[in-house]
Amino acid sequence: MRKIKKILQLVTFAVIVFSCGSGGLNKSKGELIGVKGKKYFPEKPYGMVLIPGGSYIMGKSDDDIASIEDAPTKTVTVRSFYMDETEITNSEYRQFVNWTRDSVLRTALAIKAEEILQSDANPESTGGIREYAFIEADTSQLSVYDKWKLENEVYESDDEYYANQTLNWDVDLILDRNDYPDNEYLEVVESFFLADDKVFNERRTWDTEKFIYRHKYSDVTGSKGYMKRMQERKDDLVNALLEEGYIDETTAGGFPTYTFYEDGRDLIEDAVEDRIVITDKFMQSEFPDLDRSKFIREVPVPIYPDTTVWIRDFKYSYNEPMHNDYFWHDAYSEYPVVGVTWFQASAFCEWRTLTKNAYQKTKKKKSLVPKFRLPTEAEWEYAARGGLQGGMYPWGGPYTKNDRGCFMANFKPMRGDYAVDQALYTVEANAYDPNGYSLYNMAGNVSEWVNSSYESEAYDFSITMNPNVNKEENNKKVVRGGSWKDVKYYLQVSSRDYEYANQPRSYIGFRTVHEFLGADMTANTMTNQTIQKENNKRSTIK
Ligand SMILES: [Ca+2]
Ligand SMILES: [Ca+2]
Predict the structure, then answer these.
(1) Each residue of 287-321: pLDDT tens digit?
(2) Is residue 82 domain-shared with residue 106, that is, in the same domain?
(3) CA 502 to centroid of chain Cα atoms
(4) Same structural domain, 477 and 368
(5) 421 Cα to the center of ligand 1, angstroms
(6) pLDDT by residue (tens digit) across 409-430?
(7) 472 CA to middle of ligand 2, Å?
(8) How many domains does the chain have?
């Protein structure tokens, strides 16, 4: 049994002095006035619409023809949130790809430049690859804290060191083979292209596997996550104390309480009379593996969409043109991105958050924005219903054609005939009429990854307020809405389907959501007019 020291001895800091000084009383006049922050105005992100929160009946009220019975009805409540009007398009995803590609290239160039500068006989020489070196932090402009951090930072690896240096984005990348500034630059950039003998169409082709986004997230609720591990360790500790005879357990009113013995009381922080309070902070100081930084997970995500999905998903059809052109060709810019895994979709969300907040930080008056993320399954279904109670499809239903005989979405209306609805594969992300929340293609076109994992045993959540089940170890993630290759059953707002998180498909894409902070409007308190007004505020980039 290891000795547990009493660590909290500094309580004497809690001193209340009213005897001298005004203590800021003039400002508050002695009233409780709160601490003022910046004024926060929720801003509708570009390309998103506000979905007012509310309660609804989730699941299949209609006949479950496939009798999968994985979606029984349940009343759930979701908070207000913003959602992308359309599926994320090729053009939007290219912004992520280009940013990652450029930062990977710039990092490689900067590392090479640093090597050269350090070995240079003539350190004064400039130009060529040296232009791409990391920017020396100009410490005269830094705050005391940033300066201190810079000087005291210890990096565990070269990778980590490089990841914390500042890239020089002011000098343009040169990718034209005729214009490389010097041999070192050439070597670095060419190493990111496929060797000519591996290229089929004589086009210069990036070696896409080399463009990796380091997707970071903190594992709080997973099976090996912070909360689980913390609870296990606390239980172990209490058991050990019991065994050693430092405490006795008495069960009163259903709760275990503990009686301390004299020598045991000194052992542990905050042991107050019969109650044992073992704080997270205490545990972290005793068990270093419980430090929160140990629960930051990093998943290396190759960011290029897998264009071979067009060929692999449909072995016996001729999809070469889609394979070659779908992601990059201007003709498909406004079409939904496909061939992205759940991890790529999640990385995209993180990148979008970081990009927005990097901008916000440059503006004094702007607060940081909450995370962009994948919707939970409950949010997705609520949004798909577009404010209609008990509708079968985003437009209500029960038919898939409108009164002029036109199809309402892109799917496979008849056995074997993908194109009766005028669309063979995907269509532009804003095709067809939007639903009551101004969302396009919540049924059909491409299925959409959501954050939740798929449990075949019906909805595996007991909490009905913002429910979500995302079990890290469950690699099956829910996809929703059906796609161009699906029959109409999958287009229903309540139909569930799944795919493995690392499996890209030619018929799965995604869209993102963004927390709405502020007076929580609900569909009940907001009239349709105010929703419309909010959503008609066209976000513009000034
Ligand atoms: Ca179709
Ligand atoms: Ca869709």
Answers:
(1) 888 888 888 888 899 999 998 888 888 776 777 77
(2) no
(3) 16
(4) yes
(5) 5
(6) 999 987 777 777 778 889 999 9
(7) 24
(8) 2
Separation of CA 533 and ligand 2 centre (Å): 25
Query: How many whole angstroms from 429 Cα to the centroid of ligand 2?
Result: 8
Cα of 478 from ligand 1 centre, angstroms? 22
Query: Taking all residues of the chain, what is their mean pLDDT, rounded to a whole number?
Result: 82
Residues with CB under 5 A from ligand 1 (ion): 410, 418, 421, 423, 484
Q: How far apart are the CA of 370 and the centre of ligand 2, in A?
A: 24
Do 134 and 112 form a contact (C-beta atoms < 8 A)? no
Q: Could you tell me if 205 and 313 lie in one domain?
A: no
Strand bridging mode 296-302 / 275-276: unpaired
Instruction: State how far the Cα of 300 lies from the Cα of 214, in Å rounded to an integer.
Output: 5
Q: Which ligand is nearest to the CA of 420?
A: 1
Question: CA dihedral in degrees (385, 386, 392, 395; nearest 10)?
Answer: -150
Q: Indicate whether 424 belongs to any domain.
A: yes
Ligand number, closest to the Cα atom of 444: 2
Residue 343's domain comprises: 48-89+303-515
Tell me the two tokens of residue 132. 């791409």
State the ligand closest to the CA atom of 336: 2
| Cα atoms found within 13 Å of the Cα of residue 54, Cβ hemisphere only | 19
3-state secondary structure of 331: helix
CA 148 – ligand 2 centroid, Å? 49
Ligand 2 mean position, distance from CA 276 (Å): 52
Residue 377 located in a structural domain:
yes
CA of 396 to the centre of ligand 2 (A): 16
Q: Are residues 455 and 379 in the same domain?
A: yes
**Which ligand has its closest atom nearest to the C-alpha of 480?**
2
Cis, peptide link before residue 398, omega less than 30° from 0: yes
Last residue of one domain, picked from the residues 211, 243, 267: 211
Task: Provide the percentage of residues in the chain whose pLDDT is more than 90.
Answer: 39
CATH code of the domain containing 333? 3.90.1580.10
Cβ-proximal residues to 164 (8 Å cutoff; 6+ apart), any chain: 153, 155
Residues 53 and 140 in one domain: no
Report the separation in Å between the CA atom of 358 and the middle of ligand 2, taken as the mean of its atom positions. 30
